[in-house]
Amino acid sequence: MPEKVKFYKAPGARPPEKKSSHAAAFDVCAHLPPDTNLKIGPGQRFAVPTGLYFAIPEGFYLSVRPRSGLALNHGITCLNTPGTIDSDYRGELKIILINHSDQDFTIENGDRIAQILLEVEVSLEWEPAKTAEELGITDRGAGGFGSTGLA
């Protein structure tokens, strides 16, 4: 049986929706005042309203991710990816979009702008070690950025 998440949508807002039977995430849409649109210029960012509010169950969170088509075709993506919506947040879901292209991009009311996933929060406790050596040895060790090669 699927997990149920209570939500409210402002008048005229579109509910989260899967666009195919095997889609993992739900698309969310811009909710703008009637007869208006939003222009995001090159390099600009904007928190786009969705008109959606959620009661995320304790032990879960919503993950906000970009739509691949917007990223590939227009250079539009979510600035903080993935965004995390905690279970105790009750405000409107807004999607922070950034325009990485060299052209203006116009968002109209109802445009699909991001996708959301309900994810399980893992309960954990941090256990301090007295030394870095207590963490153990791996083949990679302390190798950082690019240390595992390009292939």
Summarize the entry for a quick read.
The chain is 5% helix and 34% strand.
Describe what you observe in this structure.
- There is one protein chain.
- The chain is mainly beta.
- It has one helix at 68-74, and strands at 6-9, 26-29, 37-40, 45-49, 52-55, 60-65, 76-78, 83-85, 94-99, 105-108, 112-120.
- Strands 2-11-6-8 form a four-stranded antiparallel sheet, with no helix packed on it.
- It has one helix and eleven strands.
- It has a single domain, classed as Deoxyuridine triphosphatase (dUTPase) (Deoxyuridine 5'-Triphosphate Nucleotidohydrolase, Chain A), CATH 2.70.40.10.
- The termini are far apart.
| Mean model confidence by pLDDT | 93
User: How many discrete domains?
Assistant: 1
Shape: globular
Query: How do the helices and strands follow one another from N- to C-terminus?
Result: EEEEEEHEEEEE
Low-confidence stretches: none
User: Looking across the biggest beta sheet, what order are the strands in?
Assistant: 2-11-6-8
Topology of this structure?
Layout: E1 6-9, E2 26-29, E3 37-40, E4 45-49, E5 52-55, E6 60-65, H1 68-74, E7 76-78, E8 83-85, E9 94-99, E10 105-108, E11 112-120
Antiparallel strand pairs: 1-5, 2-11, 3-10, 4-9, 6-8, 6-11, 7-9
Keywords:
single chain, 151 residues, mainly beta, Deoxyuridine 5'-Triphosphate Nucleotidohydrolase, Chain A, 4-stranded antiparallel sheet, 3-stranded antiparallel sheet, 1 helix
